[in-house]
Structure formats: C-alpha cells, structure tokens
Design goal:
This protein is of the alpha+beta class. The chain has 17 helices and 15 strands. The chain has a domain of about 200 residues: D-Maltodextrin-Binding Protein, domain 2, CATH 3.40.190.10. Strands 1-12-4 form a three-stranded antiparallel beta sheet, with helices on one face. A hairpin with an 8-residue loop joins strand 6 and strand 7. Helix 12 packs across helix 13 and helix 15 runs antiparallel to helix 16.
C-alpha cells in the first residue's frame, strides 16, 4: 500500500466524483499474497465491485458465477474504450459469445524478438535478419561457443518455450495441445509431433549435445542477466528502453515471427465486475474513465500529483520519486498515459501499431470447455510437466522421448481430451 494512499485516493475521488458521481476504495494486495487472497475473495463472495485477474482464473471464476455478464452494458457505459480498442480484442475475452471482463489494452498481442548483444553482431558482422530460425543459428552459435568460451544460449528450465507461440492453446492450459493460429481447418493437434515443433526440438537437442546451451539449464529456476542471444516478447524499441538497460549492454533486435492475437495474449490483464455489485454500470463507467481520461490514467499510473509526479511546461510527466508501486498494467491501457520527460520517443505508439496489425488466431473467441475431460486433462498436464524441462532444454532426444510421452498420455486419457477438443472446435467453426 503506498504511504500516501489516503491523500492520493482523496484526489482520485474528488476527480471521479465530479465526472461520474462515485467514490472509490481500493485494497492493494502484495503479489506474494495475491493468488490466495483473490481466491478467498471470489470463493467466499466477499463484497467487492471490481477485481483484477487474468487468463489463469478467468474461466474458472466465470464457471463459479463470480462475474457480471457485461456484454449488453458496454455500449452505454464504455464508449471511450469501445472506440479506443479494436473489436477483435473484445473477442479475446468472449466466453460462449458473452463478455465478463474488460481487457487492459496494452501489449495485448504477441510479437517475439531475437535480442542480440550488439558488440557481437558488430564484431562478427552478423546479418541477424537471416538468423530468425533455430536451424539458421547453429553455425553462428558454434563459432561463438568456440571463440568466447561461453554459452550462446543460456536458459532456465522452461527452455525455448516460445516455439509453441504459433499454437493457440484454446484454454487447455498446456503447450502440447493446440490449434495452429493460422490453420483455417481448426485441426487440434499434439504439438510435440508437429513437424515444425519436432524440427526445432531436434535442433535444441543438437545444441545441448554441442555445449551451446548451458548444461544446468534443466534444473535452473532463474536465468542470468547477460545473454549473447535470447528471445523475448515485446516490441522493437524495448531494445532501447528495457532489454538493453536490463543487460547493461547495447542490443539489437530482430522480429522472428508474425504478431499474433489470441485469447491468451488478451487475457494477461483483465478487470471483472462482481456478480454481487449494486453498481455494475458505475463500475464500467469507472473503468472507461481510467482507460480513456488521461488525467485519471496518470493518477493511477504515476501516483499523486505534486507528491509522486508533476507535469512539465511541455505537457510531459516528471517523476519526483519512484515510490509509487502500483502495477500499471493491471489498471488500464498504456496508450493514454502521458509521456515521461525522460523518454526520447513514445514506445506505446509502436505497441499500438503492432496490436492493430496483429493477425488474429483462428481460435479467437473460442474457449475449450474442459469439464467433460477435466480429470484426463489434469493427468496429462502432469505427465508433460515431468518431461518438460529436459525436452525444452535439449537434454532429451525428442525422437526418443516424444513417443514415450505420448504412450503415457494415451494411458491417461489423451485421446479423450483430443477428441473432445476437436468436437468443440468443429462446433465453433460451424462444421
């Protein structure tokens, strides 16, 4: 809880009181307590009006009847956000064609970038535009390994998990089941057997054998600060604003895949209205104001004016201190936040452009109802988790271990899961 919460909330309430006639009280929960506290609030029907959440709990809470169906209230109460955010982002929170959550419109699509140490790129005159697939990197990594006596690919136990991002997990909650985002036939597949995934897993295994990957990767729970090369989700200018400064080096970045929009990318930050609230319309009006009114957005994002920040003569924000710790991504869009005076450019313009150009997954708006196969799916998830770290860091030969994994999955009811998922996908696609 910010030390100046009382004076901050007074200024917020004075502003929103004039605008929409409401007062706001907030409970700020530390991240370490968040899951338990949120579960208690929802499961015990503890009074609240708006609650933050994400895709990890969205469907389960809807199934509990925890949230208000806001579909038919949006036009009257959220005109600003409806105009700001493209319709396809609302589709990302639909469940059986109904909307129960307000997405935070930020980096709500996924774009993966290869991040390179610029010093190495310059030293070896690397054409990083031609080094966007795993197999294209092997020769370069072999040379870097030999010359630098270091690991060109330094990862922790989840390995190079981004290879699954082209598969929509359809709400199944596991990387090994999905529909490829651009597959208009909607074929549900066991991703580990797909040619593109198997090929990449074979390359990762080859890298492990050659010492390109750090040998302790499968057991590490934390990465390291410096990386010759790594892949991350973001946007190009993050190389200047985030990735480079975090590493303490100049970096260059290269987009390696299309920008994809899916349910999962949208559901990273959501705000829901309680089924028990007396004021559902006012809740939506408040969320519309938080997203679309720059003055209010700044109050949530930066803190109290005159205490945590001030406006400069040219209309930018100067942060007086770094004591405002509320997580900005949980509150509302980034695109209406005032630019800081330390920023040389507005990186959010780039993010917004990526969002608008994102290619929608064919499964956008579909969520797998796992109830008919919940036990089988839970058992299959556990099987994959036992193998995941050694597969994704290249310890295991995929041509040997994937058939073994599949054999265990089939005994646990994998075919039931696949058949039920395909039945629902076919229904969604009108087959």
């Amino acid at each position: 809880m910010p030390t100046n919460y009382d004076s901050w909330i007074s200024s917020v309430n004075a502003y929103i009181g004039e605008k929409i006639g409401v007062n706001l009280e907030m409970e700020v929960i530390p991240w370490g307590d968040w899951d338990n506290r949120r579960n208690i609030i929802v499961s015990t029907n503890e009074p609240y009006d708006i609650i933050f959440g994400n895709g990890n709990n969205y469907i389960a809470d809807i199934n509990l009847g925890a949230y208000t169906d806001i579909t038919d209230m949006l036009d009257a109460n959220m005109p600003g956000l409806l105009e700001l955010m493209p319709d396809k982002y609302w589709d990302g929170v639909r469940v059986k064609d109904r909307i129960y959550g307000v997405p935070t419109y930020k980096d709500s699509s996924i774009t993966n970038y290869a991040i390179w140490d610029k010093e190495l790129v310059d030293e070896y005159s690397l054409d990083i535009k031609s080094l966007t697939t795993l197999d294209s990197l092997t020769e370069t990594f072999e040379k870097l390994k030999a010359d630098k006596n270091d690991y060109p690919v330094y990862v922790k136990n989840d390995g190079l998990y981004y290879i699954f991002d082209v598969y929509d997990q359809i709400g199944a909650g596991t990387q090994i089941l999905g529909v490829r985002f651009d597959d208009k036939e909607g074929r549900v597949c066991f991703t580990l057997e797909e040619p593109d995934i198997m090929s990449q897993l074979k390359t990762i295994h080859e890298w492990n054998k050659k010492g390109i990957i750090n040998p302790d990767a499968a057991t590490l729970t934390e990465g390291r600060v410096y990386n010759m090369w790594r892949v991350a989700q973001g946007w190009e200018s993050a190389g200047v604003t985030s990735w480079g400064p975090q590493m303490g080096k100049d970096v260059v970045v290269q987009q390696i895949e299309k920008t994809i929009l899916s349910n999962e990318t949208v559901r990273g930050s959501l705000n829901m209205v309680s089924i028990n609230t007396k004021y559902p319309e006012k809740c939506l009006q408040l969320l519309d104001l938080v997203n679309c009114d720059t003055k209010l957005r700044d109050l949530f994002y930066f803190g109290e004016e005159g205490v945590n920040f001030e406006y400069t003569a040219d209309g930018k924000v100067h942060k007086i201190n770094n004591e405002w710790a509320l997580a900005g991504y949980t509150q509302g869009t980034f695109f209406t936040v005032t630019l800081e005076d330390t920023a040389e450019f507005n990186q959010w313009d780039e993010v917004k452009a990526l969002n608008e150009a994102a290619e929608s997954s064919v499964m956008l708006g579909f969520t797998f109802d796992t109830n008919p196969v919940s036990n089988q799916l839970a058992n299959c998830r556990e099987i994959w988790l036992r193998y995941k770290s050694e597969v994704m860091t290249g310890v295991q030969d995929p041509e040997v271990v994937v058939p073994k994994i599949k054999e265990e999955l089939m005994k646990a009811g994998w075919q039931d899961v696949m058949d039920e998922a395909q039945r629902q996908v076919d229904e969604f696609m009108g087959k």
